[in-house]
Design goal:
The chain has 507 residues and is α/β, with parallel strands linked by helices. It has 3 domains: 221 residues, Rossmann fold (3-Layer(aba) Sandwich); 95 residues, Rossmann fold; 176 residues, Biosynthetic Threonine Deaminase, domain 3, CATH 3.40.1020.10. It is built from 20 helices and 18 strands.
């Protein structure tokens, strides 16, 4: 079986359209992990994904009669773009069925690559429904179906990646990490590598909420997931292929599951090393490699991670940036309760000495206690535990929310509301140069003469930090308060008359 795939891979015609991508060292990741980390840069393909290899190899192998009939594919992204470019190069008509939920940017990309050779049909809410429609159209129009993963020619096309890796790095390789959706990519790479250098471990990586292959191997049969997570949409497959399941059972050494935060951290890692932004599925292998190194305390190993795609939805970048620090265990998200009394704020800040605050949300609600939502930069899990012990030692009840999806996804944006306790409240926006410790210095500069009733801050990586503060100032103290603002030295803006503030926050 492996020798059959070896021949298929060696005779694949992918290089009519694909390029041999770089295998390059990731210096920062290597330094942090203590291993030599090599990235196989499939994100630099013409369609920014490896999918072009398999799609073109399948279509280039069709005879003239089949090409005249045309091909059909179901896909919401990378496979569609690969089929479209292959159709344009082979002068072949292609029908691409895409779910109605497909972002316009991906639809436009398919049109760009395929030109007038491609017909796009939007149908179904998911890939499964689009695939069902494609099957019907294939039968009606007598079109050749180009499967995204469960086809020997597609698998062989993806296998050329394994061939390139071994040619580009003749030295020892301890493990190759590959993302798994339907299984075509890892099946092709494993078929080649295990035939040529079987001592290299092939390790698959799946999103923990889209782990059809891992569950199937555990069960000894192909399982169908009821639901799949959509963050790593490029690998969100409910059922793996028959052939890919067979190959993975035989050739894949291990499968690792990673969560969303770990994927976001991996996207950031690759950006820091290469200034390239991978899509979530494209960063799965890097996230799995990091998890494997940490779990096995691996040092001085040589590992390869396939960066398999960069078709990132731009609107996701805000989410990725927000979750990356938590995924790397470099941000702790905490709920802290402090007494609602003068001096508590400063005692709280003193307890955080040496740790930069990444987020701070507070709204007065109780005359006796204040509940703070706080993000902190930490070194690792142990440092997070030390911070929590210090806070509790100072009498501040502390709850760790670093792994709480509700808190990270929703509650952090909802801390606030109207408060009957916020009498004589003024609302001000402040700006200050964003430097290490800048927020703590700002808090220390706030006068203890007036109570802080609202506070919101989030480090967004900009040159200037922006803070929203509610301060309870009696009318008799207004002259003193204005003098205080003038001496504070930070640009500020009075938002007390803002209609949105009065609608949502004013007591």
């Amino acid at each position: 079986m492996s020798l059959d795939y070896l021949k298929r891979i060696l005779t694949s015609r992918v290089y009519d359209v694909a390029r041999e991508t770089e295998l390059e060292i990731a210096p920062a990741l290597s330094a942090r992990t203590g291993c030599t980390v090599l990235l196989k840069r499939e994100d630099t393909q013409p369609v920014f994904s490896f999918k072009l290899r398999g799609a073109y190899n399948k279509m280039a192998g069709l005879d003239a009669r089949e090409l005249r009939r045309g091909v059909i594919a179901a896909s919401a992204g990378n496979h569609a773009q690969g089929v479209a470019l292959a159709a344009a190069r082979l002068d072949c008509k292609a029908v691409i069925v895409m779910p109605v939920t497909t972002p316009q940017v991906k639809i436009d990309a398919v049109r760009t690559f395929g030109g007038d050779r491609v017909e796009i049909i939007l149908g179904g809410e998911s890939y499964s429904e689009a695939k069902a429609l494609a099957d019907v159209l294939a039968a009606q129009r007598k079109l050749v179906f180009v499967h995204p993963f469960d086809d020997p020619d597609v698998i062989a096309g993806q296998g050329t990646i394994g061939m390139e890796i071994l040619r580009q790095h003749a030295g020892p390789i301890d493990a190759i990490f590959v993302a798994i959706g339907g299984g075509g990519l890892i099946s092709g790479i494993a078929a080649y590598v295990k035939a040529v250098r079987p001592q290299i471990r092939i390790i698959g990586v799946q999103a923990s909420d889209s782990d059809a292959m891992a569950q199937s191997i555990d069960a000894g049969r192909r399982v169908v997931l009821k639901d799949v997570g959509l963050f790593c949409d490029g690998t969100a497959v409910k059922q793996v292929g028959k052939e890919t399941f067979r190959l993975c059972r035989e050739l894949v050494d291990e499968i690792i599951r990673v969560d969303t935060d770990a994927v976001c951290a991996a996207i950031k890692d690759v950006f820091q090393d290469s200034r390239s932004i991978l899509e979530p599925a494209g960063a799965l292998a890097i996230a799995g490699m990091k998890a494997w190194v940490a779990k096995n305390a691996a040092r001085q190993k040589t590992v390869v991670a396939v960066a398999c795609g960069a078709n990132m939805n731009f609107n996701r970048l805000r989410f990725v940036a927000e979750r990356a620090e938590v995924g790397e265990s470099r941000e702790a998200v905490l709920a802290v309760t402090i007494p609602e009394q003068r001096g508590s704020f400063l005692r709280f800040c003193d307890a955080l000495a040496g740790h930069d605050i990444t987020e701070f949300n507070y709204r007065i609600a109780d005359i006796e206690q204040a509940h703070l939502f706080v993000g902190l930069q930490v070194k690792d899990h142990a440092d997070r535990a030390r911070v929590m012990r210090a806070l509790r030692k100072d009498g501040f009840a502390t709850l760790d929310l670093s792994n709480d999806e509700l808190a990270k996804q929703h509650l952090r944006h909802m801390v606030g509301g109207r408060s009957a306790s916020a009498e004589s409240e003024l609302l001000y926006r402040f700006e200050f140069p964003e430097r290490p410790g800048a927020l703590l210095r700002f808090l220390s500069a706030m006068s203890p003469d007036w109570n802080i009733s609202l506070f919101h801050y989030r480090n967004e990586g900009a040159d200037f930090g922006r803070i929203l503060v509610g301060i309870q100032v009696p009318a008799a103290d207004m002259a003193k308060f204005r003098k205080f603002l003038d001496g504070l030295g930070y640009p500020h803006c009075d938002e007390s008359a803002n209609p949105a503030y009065r609608l949502f926050l004013r007591g």
